[in-house]
Amino acid sequence: MNSIKDKVMHTPEIDMDLDEFREILSDALKEGGTQHLLRLTDEEIAVLDPDSLTECVAPTPRLGELSAQEREWAYATALRSLVSREAVEVGNIDELDSVVRRAKNSNDAAAGTTPSGIDLDLRITPELSLALTLRRTATQALAVEQNTSGGATHALVYVHSVDLYLVERVTSGGLHAFTLASSAEDAAQLVQMFVDPFDVADKDGPTHHLTPEQISQDNVGRSLTEAINGALVVSQVVLLADRPGPLLTTYATDRMVWTVFVEAPNSQTGIQARPVGKLTLKKMISQLLIPENAKESE
User: Choosing a second label site near 126 at 20 to 30 A (CA), which of 9, 29, 156, 216?
Assistant: First the structure.
């Protein structure tokens, strides 16, 4: 299988026309299929793309656990890690050690800032630039929050075209794993493994039509109530776009998966609940991942 690097990583920069860039990636993925791209930590993302901390929807859970001074030190350490892995090249490498010393001795670091005093000539690899560009330029994204007894983890699917998706999975410890997917079905498969990690989606059941009042009063029927109370994994899947998208909530027990689908925010109708099998669950997620312009052209 050809690596995506073999197809597009020879491009030294990604400041070309965005549509052209997407087309190159799509062509490469058609041959190689879904491919893991790279992993980054919260701190590394903060160093590489500090504006994304406020402009991107992906969470950075570890940064919230650090004091301002600890964060400064973590940023400097992350930069050293990126350099050692050859993910980043520093033109003025002699400045790197002084950056670390300043971060270690800093007493006035402000929360939410990048390392103070950094004036480095940084050049990042095309692979890194690829991931950072795709997560910043998507016209819509699917946000997934998974809740278990161990806490919350997240996944984001950045939708670029019918054959180009960037999937970002964020652990509770702030590790970001990036994957390129070549179709809505492939991206949906990754999300399905996230919302149904124990692979218990069994078979489709009857659809129950609910009202907002029934949900607010916990009057949703015995079967759904049992699924909610017995859920080992509860996930929220929401489409982020110019027009508010639908919301899909999943409840995975030890033997089945129930879905509650809300057609639009504050919808008084179109709320459907049912147990689902694997194929239906994947289809529901795939439908959320079809780009708006592709839906309009159908």
Answer: 156
